[in-house]
Amino acid sequence: MRRALPILAVLVVAGCGGDARQDADEPSGEFKVEVVDASFPARQHVAENVELKVKVRNSESDESLRNVAVTVETKPRGSDAALAFGQNKRGAGLADAGRPVWVLDEGPKGGETAYVNTWLAGTLGPGREKELVWKLVPARAGTYDISYRVSPGLTGKARAAEGDTAGSFTVVISGDPVPARVGEDGEVERGVEPGSTLGSD
C-alpha cells in the first residue's frame, strides 16, 4: 500500500507551498452542482480491491466552477466525528482513535485538499462532468453506511442549490477471504468461485 495512514490520507494540501490557495476567489451564493452517478459494491470481502465512484456535474448554464468538491463520510458510532473511510474507536491510551474500515490505496488524482474527508473535482465548465474514483481495500468486517455529497466550493461560501447533491450506500463487508481460483493461464482470478467457469450460465 502506498499510504500508511489511510484515514488521514488527505492531510497534505495539493500544491502546498504554491502561490495560490485552493479556495482563493471562491464565489458566494448557490450554484447548481449535482451527482449524476455513483457506485460502490454492496457486498465486499476483507482484502478485496474495490472502487467507490462518484460522477459530478456543473449544471450551471453559463458559469465555470473552480472548486467543485466531494465529501465522503462513514457513519460514525454515536456522536463521534465522521471519517472518510473509518470510524473512531474509544479507549484509554489511544494516540489516534481513528481506525480504518477501508484502506485508501489511491484517491482521485489531483483531488487532494486540506480536509481529511473532501476531494476536489477541480474546475468544471458549464455542463461538464467528472468522475472521482477511490481505490480501496476493506479492512474490517461488518455493516457500514457511507455517504457522499457534492459542493461547488470548499469554504461554505459557495453552496449547492437544491437537487441531487448527495447519496449513500449500505455496505456489508465479509471477513471471509474473497473467492478466487487459478485460471488456465496461471493467473489468480478473484471474485470467481473455485471450479466455476467464466461466462457459463
TrEMBL record:
It comes from Solirubrobacter phytolaccae. This is Uncharacterized protein. Residues 182-192 have a biased composition (Basic and acidic residues). The lineage of its organism: Bacteria, Bacillati, Actinomycetota, Thermoleophilia, Solirubrobacterales. Residues 178-201 are annotated as: Disordered. It comes from the Bacteria.
